[in-house]
């Protein structure tokens, strides 16, 4: 993966901000979970394509229905991006499910469980 230019980094952050706004405030599709966030965005240097990594807090069914809802609103999202961001080309957005936040939450829970078990063992050992 090559290093992004300053221009590409600025475009990525602007597209991320606008996509977040559009998904949270503009789209009224009931399939899209309320706890949906845009984790990161990668716009191609030619501005033709864009990968948007989406995180959905919920079960597998909520994640799938959210992706389905976003894909069906693809045209609307692209049109709103074109209105809000002045670019030569409006990128074609492809939504990809990002499970890194969910993975981090699960790991944190497991670490807490292990710490609690270790403290319990230490407490039992000190009582004996």
Sequence of secondary-structure elements? HEEHHEH
Number of helices: 4
User: What would the principal axes of the Cα set say about the shape?
Assistant: elongated
SS strand fraction: 15-25%
Q: Which bin fits the share of residues in helices?
A: 55-70%
**Biggest beta sheet attributes:** 3 strands, mixed
For the termini, the CA-CA separation is 57 Å
**pLDDT below 50 for ≥5 consecutive residues: which ranges?**
none
Whole-number average pLDDT? Answer: 89
Q: What integer value in Å does the Rg equal?
A: 20 Å
Q: What is the SS-derived class? A: alpha+beta
Please tally the β strands and state the result: 3
Biggest sheet: strands side by side, in what order?
Answer: 1-2-3
């Amino acid at each position: 993966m090559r290093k992004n230019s300053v221009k590409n980094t600025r475009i990525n952050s602007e597209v991320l901000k606008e996509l977040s706004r559009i998904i949270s405030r503009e789209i009224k599709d009931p399939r899209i979970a309320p706890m949906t966030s845009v984790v990161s965005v990668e716009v191609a240097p030619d501005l033709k394509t864009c990968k948007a990594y989406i995180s959905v807090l919920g079960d597998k069914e909520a994640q799938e229905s959210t992706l389905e809802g976003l894909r069906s609103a693809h045209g609307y999202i692209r049109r709103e991006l074109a209105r809000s961001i002045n670019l030569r080309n409006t990128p074609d957005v492809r939504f990809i499910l990002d499970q890194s936040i969910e993975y981090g939450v699960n790991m944190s829970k497991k670490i807490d469980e292990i710490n609690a078990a270790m403290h319990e063992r230490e407490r039992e050992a000190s009582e004996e």
